[in-house]
Write a structure and sequence with these properties.
Elements: H1 2-20, H2 23-46, H3 54-69, H4 78-94, H5 103-121, H6 123-129, H7 133-158, E1 162-164, E2 168-172, H8 173-189, H9 198-226, H10 241-245, H11 251-264
Antiparallel strand pairs: 1-2
Helix pairs in contact: 2-3, 2-5, 2-6, 3-4, 3-5, 4-5, 6-7, 6-11, 7-8, 7-9, 8-9
């Protein structure tokens, strides 16, 4: 399993490095991951017997980061308008169904999936578009993904105290602390490119490392509810696209709002 994880991680790192310096290539990679992850989410939910408009939801989900990448914004709340339009269209589509059972759950899950995966992950493109965007995107990726790596390495070697066994039996307190340590190392790695002191970088890394762990635990909770181990198996040892980006889904929006406000000052 460790060899598979290492192999997949090297491939993903190589992909990230190869696209980071091109805004278009980077944005298209985010859009591709969004579509795959959203498809995985809807497929996972379908296993609970919930009827949803999967392909329509994926199409709308891909449209959100696409409009961000090409700066197609009618107003500042363009993404929210798309979500409202999604809800309206889903309601009209439900009128054509012969059965009304499961309407509330199906619509709610579809809208939630678009917001949770597509809208939240689209902030990775917005981060890349900020001043010092390459450094900031690298920072959030390193803080979140090194957190995952540290939690796995430290947890598998030294983990004894269960963190939240009801949600994820294999996660440990020791692993969580190891993840935070690796997040700090990730933040320090990009410090030369950011205008922050060491204490500020450590604090930022800790805060966003915690958010990364909340994102990971949140997906674990949903996978446990759907009774699946991984969202898919496209990345050997790591799982699916959703498993790879889960730690970024809460981290990216908060990081963007924090950094965009700091940069205005």
């Amino acid at each position: 399993m460790l060899i598979k994880r290492l192999y997949s991680s090297v491939l993903i790192i190589a992909l990230v490095v190869s696209v980071m310096f091109s805004e278009l290539a980077y944005g298209l990679s985010v859009i591709a991951l969004t579509g795959i992850a959203l498809y995985e989410f809807f497929t996972m939910v379908e296993k609970k017997g919930i009827w949803i408009y999967k392909y329509f939801g994926v199409a709308v989900g891909v449209l959100i980061p696409l409009t961000v990448l090409f700066r197609f914004e009618l107003n500042k709340n363009w993404e929210l308008f798309l979500i409202v339009l999604l809800l309206l269209t889903l309601m009209i589509m439900q009128f054509r169904r012969r059965q009304s059972a499961g309407v509330v759950v199906g619509i709610s899950v579809t809208v939630f999936g678009v917001m949770y995966v597509a809208w939240f992950f689209s902030f990775m493109i917005k981060i890349r578009m900020l001043p010092q965007g390459i450094a900031l995107a690298s920072a959030v990726l390193l803080i979140a993904k090194l957190n995952d790596m540290g939690a796995y390495l430290i947890g598998s070697r030294f983990g004894k105290t269960p963190l939240m066994p009801r949600i994820s039996p294999k996660k440990s307190v020791e692993g969580a602390l190891g993840g935070l340590l690796f997040s700090i190392l990730g933040g320090l790695a990009v410090k030369p490119f950011l205008s922050y002191s060491y204490s500020q970088v450590i604090l930022i890394s800790l805060v966003f490392g915690i958010l990364a762990q909340i994102g990971d635990l949140s997906e674990s909770l949903m996978k446990r509810d759907c009774q699946v181990k991984d969202s898919s198996s496209i990345f050997p040892g790591l799982g699916g696209a959703l498993d790879c980006i889960d730690s970024l889904l809460f981290t990216a929006p908060v990081f963007y709002f924090f950094m965009s406000n700091v940069l205005r000052q």
